Amino acid sequence: MSETAATRTPVGRLPLVPLLPSLAPLLRSWLPRQRWFAGKGRSITGFSLVSATELLPVTGADAGPGLLHLLVTVHQGASSTPDDCYQLLLGVRDVLPPHLAPALIGRPAAGPLADRTVYEGLLDARLAELVLERLRTPGTLGPLRFEQFEDAPAVPGGLAARPLDAEQSNSSLVYGDEYVLKVLRRVQPGPHPDLELPLALARAGCPRVPVPVAWYETAAPRPYALGVLQPYLRGSKDGWQLALEALATGRPFTAEARALGRVTAEVHTALAAELPTLALDRARAGRLADAMARRLDEAVRAVPGLLPYAPRLRTAFDALADLGDAGRRWRVQRVHGDLHLGQALYADRDWSVIDFEGEPARPLAERRRPQPPVRDVAGILRSFDYAARTHRPWNPAWAERCRVAYCEGYAEAAGVDPRAEPELLRAYETDKAVYEVVYEARHRPDWLPVPMAAIDRLAAFA
After folding, report:
1. Which of 214, 191, 194, 200 is nearest to 138 (CA)?
2. CB atoms within 10 A of CB 460
3. Is there a smaller number of Cβ atoms within 10 Å at the N or the C end of the chain?
4. Which of 110, 160, 154, 121 is nearest to 135 (CA)?
């Protein structure tokens, strides 16, 4: 166990040297049980403290709750996977009230918090509301910096906090049904797309994305984006819910699909206007095709059931490389990166797009890399397929009608139909389906037939 030279002095008098070793036995047990912990299945060999800040003092005579903000690097042995850094917000009390029992982490036996109760602070409404108060006042607190969007209205105080259950790789808090705070858990230094892209869209005047009202991060020289506050879209339903309801009642979904295609195109157009674009030339197309082929090879090793399909699937990537060799060029730009029906919210007969984080398992530099807009299109098309497969009996015609309507809507707003580049679209759909096969095999084996059906369909194009 180590404490790195990057350790920062917290605000307050909490002794740093024994802090992390005293918390380590608790974190070693608690972290792997969290949905947002990415290192499941690998043993934890140690921790390093990146920073520690008392948002509310945890030491002193007052026995009330304290709130400790930590950035902790988790070491997981000699794996080829890099160590991950996590944001923790730990509540500290002498005695934990019964209603907070599910938040318990444990009681350190030694160190500055010896014999006090440590728990998940975001589940304590009083502490969660303190985080909002910090966001209402721009400035710094130790290594933390709190910012606000220049044109955002003032955030009112006194809003009650509640955790949002629908979370995976991060944690979310809703304040008074007015705002939602996404607390990033697995953090990396550098600009974070879930802040960077909504800010760019807000400055471009695109109304399709909730404007970041406030956020917090660490200060230079190694800035980590930590949390983003945005308006909460009350009464909205995500596209996945809507699609399943349409399937269950036999109602068409083509009007919603067409509208979502238009909204996707509007977001792409605004991002291209606000941020730099590049050309996917011969060299970039070759690298892209090679990366897709490598992911296919890795997937075959992980899921042997892909092996019979691999040669035919590889032709999709070869076709992309061949077009690049023949001089075909495509525009690449910043895109959503992980677009599916669950990332689109429908309220008042209109769509909004959320969660620009990209695929959380990918390195941050990769998630920020410009891509052809068709990558997002492929994600939505695959999502229609997933929705249709949840219905009994399977309704492939429903998915196909939605696919057609979505692409038509996209073409209406963008002036370019994504189906006009079939090789590019097939390559991205194939790459996405291969990713889905590995994910389902590892996490939801019962769902594996869904992407495998797509694999069978996409291989038939060879």
Report:
1. 214
2. 9
3. N
4. 154
Residue with tokens 């409404």: 125
> Which pLDDT belongs to residue 391?
84
Low-confidence ranges of the chain (pLDDT < 70): 1-17, 60-63, 78-80, 166-167
Per-residue pLDDT, 40: 83
When computed from its CA atoms, the radius of gyration of the chain, rounded to whole angstroms, is: 23
Give, as one character, the DSSP assignment of residue 2.
-
Nearest CA-CA partner of 227 in 216, 237, 235: 216
Domain 128-231 sits in CATH at 3.30.200
Cα(197)–Cα(291) distance, rounded to whole angstroms? 25
User: 237-459: which CATH number, 3.90.400.10, 3.90.1200.10, 3.40.50.150, 3.10.290.10?
Assistant: 3.90.1200.10
What are the residues whose beta carbons fall under 8 Å from the beta carbon of 2, sequence distance 6 or more?
A: 46, 47, 48, 75
pLDDT in tens, 377-409: 999 999 999 999 888 888 889 999 999 999 999
pTM (2 d.p.): 0.89
Q: Which amino acid is at 54?
A: E
| Amino acid in position 451 | P
- C-beta neighbour count of 232 within 10 angstroms: 19
What pLDDT is attached to residue 168? 73
Q: And the tokens for 114?
A: 């010896």
